[in-house]
């Protein structure tokens, strides 16, 4: 038994056949739907499948008089469910101490385990508390079997990054019956057409970084926490406690000492916000006190998270406000080292760049371009910056040795694996002769943004930072406090500013030099909570929030990233041309709400008394002092959504059953003329 893999002429591993005891079945495609055995099936082909096997159980009660019309019930506090089964109830739940099936047996099939009442009794107690009659009702049958659970309690789907033609359809976290129909349909479309029809990123195996998908401790800790918290209320700013500190950048200790409260993305620890109350390190995972672990008594990080368990403005709202206003009024430094940093080099690098990127990146070396990458249906697989490099014979962390053309790609760190896999698949499908080199771990990156950024950096960098010498959207190799760095004049917050891409060993001295130079200018540390607010105020997109694989750049207001005026073919071009000719059926619109009320996404958008869409992304804009929300709207009559249609409506946004009047904007309400990034204050 096994899966035969071949390596094609371009060095790409592909599925060739399935070996059985009755001979081989030739096939270019295998789908792994093996449940708790999916890991073993993956290993046959060298594919990593991040899931664990656990005992999962429910019991069925004896008949209960008068229960027939009871709805299905979930009790989030007790972490139990009660489901009608004829004239009885089935009762189950998610306990903090599930039993791991340590040695998954390949001899086990269609069997059950004995129920461990020591573990299950907590669910009976929770159910009795909710439905008291259960105390006097017997148990007719128990069901306890093996089930697979994943690090985020969502299925594993899509093509494995390690092997072309090997698809996953496993890890359904005891929701297989519920999800199977829709997931099966999307997976079929994925296999036949290369991508699913709907946005399936939340289930795509590429949401996990490849360094984590075979890390046993990380998989076990995260799968445990996701299981135990399955019925916990999902709060907007929660973070996992399991599997932390897997990937830390060179500035981690430095920022921790300055009160940084970290967020976890893609295994990286990235700055969330800075706590004036001092250091709040993330401690090793305590399994919430299960399995004989001692639960942490005094965990400052967990206490800060717990204080934010609210759907109101968080208690740290004012701290984040200060970070934002310092960036707008003076300057802030953001550690963005978690970004994905790739080099695209080789004979066909320029051809590949023309095909991959929606914008024209064939500009002179020294230029940096903001662009999208699309799929064949014109949906947005990524937005990123692409910098054209000048050829150099000497390889360094800031540029590999290459001849011909080379491009440096900077992508959001939380989606680096998705980007890497998308680019790699396209290069393979088009048979471009080029290489993608991952330097994400070798380079750090800090971004200094705000009206004082030029004055600060002029003291640290050995380059002229004037508009004439260093215009917006360009990059140069310069020295920062004696260390070679790549400086890029870009902004993700809508201010004058530069990113410094720095070899790992130079990160701390360069950061310290920037902080020292910035002291007299009011420079502050700031994190991603501030970036979220500042960027939505400026109208910049976040991939997978207001920009997804089922959104086109035309609908998202990013037509300027598409080289449709040129004749250069690019992936997704035909779909965009068809869409433009037919008229846009939906459009991303910015809304502001005057009333001081927080929004988080998924709020309904009302126009003239009809629901026309929902909010994709929302945050509070501290500079304009309003809640800002972005969402795609449709015309209920089915026609195209024109700018006039957007402007002519009367809008409100519905949050938790209450509607709030809202203003629609076609341009970002903050600095609509884009003066600040040009240094005009």
Automatic annotation (TrEMBL):
Key word Phosphoprotein present: yes
Pathway assigned in UniProt: Amine and polyamine degradation; sarcosine degradation; formaldehyde and glycine from sarcosine: step 1/1
Catalytic activity entry: (6S)-5,6,7,8-tetrahydrofolyl-(gamma-L-Glu)(n) + sarcosine + oxidized [electron-transfer flavoprotein] + H(+) = (6R)-5,10-methylenetetrahydrofolyl-(gamma-L-Glu)(n) + reduced [electron-transfer flavoprotein] + glycine
One CC-aspect GO term: mitochondrial matrix
Stretches assigned to the GCVT N-terminal domain: 251-565
EC number(s) reported in the record: 1.5.8.3
Domain FAD dependent oxidoreductase: 13-190
Enzyme class: oxidoreductase
Sequence ranges assigned to domain FAD dependent oxidoreductase central in this UniProt record: 193-248
Aminomethyltransferase C-terminal domain: residues covered: 586-670
Coiled coil: none
Cofactor(s) demanded: FAD
Gene Ontology molecular function terms on file: sarcosine dehydrogenase activity
Role of this protein: Catalyzes the last step of the oxidative degradation of choline to glycine. Converts sarcosine into glycine.
Designated name of the protein: Sarcosine dehydrogenase, mitochondrial
Protein's organism: Myotis myotis (Greater mouse-eared bat)
């Amino acid at each position: 038994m096994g899966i035969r893999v071949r390596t094609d002429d371009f060095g790409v591993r592909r599925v060739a056949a399935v070996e059985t005891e009755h001979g081989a079945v030739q096939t270019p495609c295998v789908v792994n739907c093996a449940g708790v055995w999916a890991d073993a099936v993956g290993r046959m082909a060298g594919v990593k499948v991040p899931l664990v096997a656990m005992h999962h159980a429910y019991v069925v009660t004896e008949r209960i008089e008068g229960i027939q019309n009871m709805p299905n019930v979930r009790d989030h506090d007790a972490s139990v469910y009660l489901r009608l089964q004829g004239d009885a109830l089935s009762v189950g739940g998610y306990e903090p101490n599930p039993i791991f099936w340590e040695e998954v047996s390949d001899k086990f099939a269609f069997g059950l385990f004995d129920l461990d009442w020591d573990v299950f009794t907590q669910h009976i107690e929770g159910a009795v508390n909710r439905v008291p009659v259960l105390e006097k009702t017997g148990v007719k049958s128990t069901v306890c079997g093996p089930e697979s659970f994943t690090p985020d309690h969502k299925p594993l789907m899509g093509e494995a990054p390690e092997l072309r033609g090997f698809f996953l359809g496993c890890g359904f976290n005891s929701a297989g019956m519920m999800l199977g129909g829709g997931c099966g349909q999307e997976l079929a479309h994925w296999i036949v057409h290369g991508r699913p029809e709907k946005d399936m990123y939340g289930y795509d195996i590429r949401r996990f970084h490849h360094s984590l998908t075979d890390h046993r401790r990380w998989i076990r800790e995260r799968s445990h926490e996701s299981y135990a918290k399955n019925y916990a209320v999902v709060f907007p700013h929660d973070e996992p406690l399991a599997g932390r500190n897997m990937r830390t950048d060179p500035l981690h200790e430095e920022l921790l000492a300055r009160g940084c409260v970290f967020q976890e993305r893609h295994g990286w620890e990235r700055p969330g916000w800075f706590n004036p109350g001092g250091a709040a390190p993330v401690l090793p995972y305590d399994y919430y006190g299960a399995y004989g672990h001692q639960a942490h008594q005094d965990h400052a990080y967990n206490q800060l998270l717990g204080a934010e368990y609210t759907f109101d403005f968080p208690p740290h709202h004012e701290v984040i406000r200060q970070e934002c206003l310092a960036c707008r009024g003076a300057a802030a430094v953001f550690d963005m080292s978690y970004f994905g940093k790739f080099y695209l080099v080789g004979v066909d690098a320029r051809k590949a760049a023309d095909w991959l990127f929606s914008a024209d990146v064939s500009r002179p070396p020294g230029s940096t371009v903001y662009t999208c990458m699309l799929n064949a249906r014109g949906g947005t697989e990524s937005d990123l910056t692409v910098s054209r490099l000048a050829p150099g014979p000497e390889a360094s962390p800031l540029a590999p040795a290459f001849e011909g053309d080379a491009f440096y790609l900077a992508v959001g760190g939380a989606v680096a694996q998705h980007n890497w896999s998308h680019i790699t698949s396209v290069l393979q499908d088009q048979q471009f002769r080029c290489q993608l080199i991952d330097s994400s771990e070798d380079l750090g990156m800090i971004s200094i943004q705000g009206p004082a950024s030029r004055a600060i950096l002029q003291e640290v960098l050995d380059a002229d930072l004037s508009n004439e010498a260093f215009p917006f959207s360009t990059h140069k190799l310069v020295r920062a406090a004696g260390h070679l760095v790549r400086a890029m004049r870009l902004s993700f917050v809508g201010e004058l500013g530069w990113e410094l891409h720095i070899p790992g060993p130079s990160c701390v001295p360069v950061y310290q030099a920037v902080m020292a130079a910035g002291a007299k200018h009011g420079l502050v540390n700031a994190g991603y909570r501030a970036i979220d607010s500042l960027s939505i105020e400026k109208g910049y997109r976040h991939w997978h929030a207001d920009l997804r694989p089922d959104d086109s750049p035309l609908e998202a207001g990013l037509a300027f990233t598409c080289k449709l005026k040129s004749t250069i073919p690019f992936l997704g071009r035909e779909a965009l041309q068809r869409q433009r000719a037919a008229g846009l059926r939906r459009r991303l619109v910015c809304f502001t709400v005057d009333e001081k009320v927080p929004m988080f996404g998924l709020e309904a958008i009302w126009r003239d008394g009809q629901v026309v869409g929902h909010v994709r992304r929302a945050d509070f804009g501290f500079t304009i002092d309003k809640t800002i929300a972005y969402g795609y709207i449709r015309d209920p009559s089915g026609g195209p959504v024109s700018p006039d249609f957007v402007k002519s409506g009367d809008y409100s946004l519905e949050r938790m059953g209450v509607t709030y009047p809202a203003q629609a904007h076609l341009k970002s309400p903050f600095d609509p003329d884009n003066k600040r990034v040009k240094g005009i204050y």
